[in-house]
Design a protein that fits this description.
By secondary structure, this protein is α+β, with helices and mostly antiparallel strands. It contains ten helices and six strands, in the order αβαβββααββαααααα.
Length: 366
């Protein structure tokens, strides 16, 4: 039977952690105007607008050459003319001059160099989640104008791939725990890309494909957060391995095991860790709450995929999928030992968590 994972996670987190655990990073709030501004000299866009304004606009009858000097404001240009005697005179043109707004390419190239853009990446947003636009600021010198950038976020905000290369490591400290989590979260990025590719290959609804792709972005963020908790530097972009779509039978069995069982209970466990960490005053509570809410969405995705796949398989194949799901319940954590460092990562009060694990297993097996 399908468990209500998202409801369980929200119930565990409670209102205090739901208030901070939106599933996406917090936007940086200590930025100044200077962090959004980039100083840029004359650009091709500005020059083209100035040439249009100064062309055929000589101030005197003796003018033999006319060149733009710069923009004084969005409607005022400074032009320079050369007379027949070689004298140079500058004059202002006002009225029809309109430089418009910078192109998307200009905004991208300029604004991604600002401290504000980097602050959004440091806060945990993906590049695809940071929005960029810009306008000219003509309060600088004629040849050294400014660009004002508008930077914000558009956040949509442990499953393993079929050929996972992750090997269980000996975990003997809180730092080992975060490193292992980061490794699993990174493996989940590949798993969700593989899921999206396989769903697309087999003609699944577009909404399921898009949710799988969004989940891959979530897992990238989770891996970065866990590396930060472990005190590790940001990981360089991993070389993507070639993926191939799974057969629909293999996809169903893998989704039943990794998504419907292991990832579903992982969401409940991480929510429990977040709640216990908050009660202990541990600083990891908010990060864990964010991860738990995302993992709950991924669990609901797994069960939605399972529902769609059940319409595509034979009775015999569905029986094998059920066996894979029930078999995965044996791999749920048992929490047989309680090392001292468990409390540092929110793994305390394990008696109640064992009860939740048994209740989850019974619900899935029903």
């Amino acid at each position: 039977m399908r468990p209500s994972v998202e409801a369980a996670v929200r119930a565990i987190l409670g209102s205090s952690l739901l208030g901070v655990g939106c599933g996406c990073p917090h936007e940086p709030d200590d930025l100044t105007k200077a962090d959004f501004t980039v100083r840029e000299g004359r650009t091709e866009e500005l020059d083209a607008a100035l040439q249009d304004e100064c062309r055929d606009s000589c101030a005197s009858a003796n003018c033999v050459a006319l060149t733009p000097v710069g923009a004084l404001s969005p409607t005022r240009a400074m032009c320079s003319e050369v007379d027949q005697d070689g004298s140079v005179r500058e004059f202002e043109r006002e009225g029809s001059f309109d430089i418009g707004v910078p192109s998307e390419a200009t905004c991208d190239s300029l604004c991604k160099s600002t401290p504000a853009y980097q602050a959004y990446l440091d806060a945990g947003f993906l590049e695809s989640e940071v929005t960029v636009s810009c306008t000219w600021d003509l309060t600088g010198t004629l040849d050294d104008h400014l660009v004002d950038c508008q930077i914000g976020s558009d956040c949509s905000a442990g499953r393993r791939p079929s050929e996972s290369t992750w090997v269980s490591a000996r975990i003997g400290s809180a730092r080992d725990h975060w490193i292992a989590m980061a490794t699993l979260e990174q493996a989940s990025v590949t798993a969700f890309h593989e899921l999206a590719l396989s769903l697309l290959h087999h003609g699944a609804p577009a909404s399921l494909v898009e949710r799988a792709r969004s989940a891959a972005d979530d897992e990238t963020r989770h891996a970065a957060a866990c590396r930060k908790l472990a005190g590790l530097p940001s990981a360089s972009a991993a070389k993507a391995r070639a993926l191939r779509p799974l057969s629909i039978h293999d996809l169903a069995r893998l989704n039943a095991r990794e998504g419907c069982v292991l990832e579903s209970f992982a969401a409940i466990q991480v929510a429990w860790q977040a709640r216990r960490a908050q009660l202990a005053g541990a600083p990891v509570a908010e990060t864990l709450a964010n991860i738990a809410l995302d993992e709950a969405k991924h669990a609901e995705l797994a069960w939605d995929v399972d529902a769609w796949l059940s319409t595509q398989l034979s009775a015999a194949e569905l029986a094998e999928v059920d066996l894979a799901r029930i078999g995965a319940l044996r791999d749920l954590p048992r929490y047989d030992s309680v090392p001292d460092w468990f409390a540092d990562v929110g793994l305390s009060g394990l008696g109640e968590l064992r009860v939740r694990a048994r209740a989850f297993a019974a619900e899935v097996a029903a």
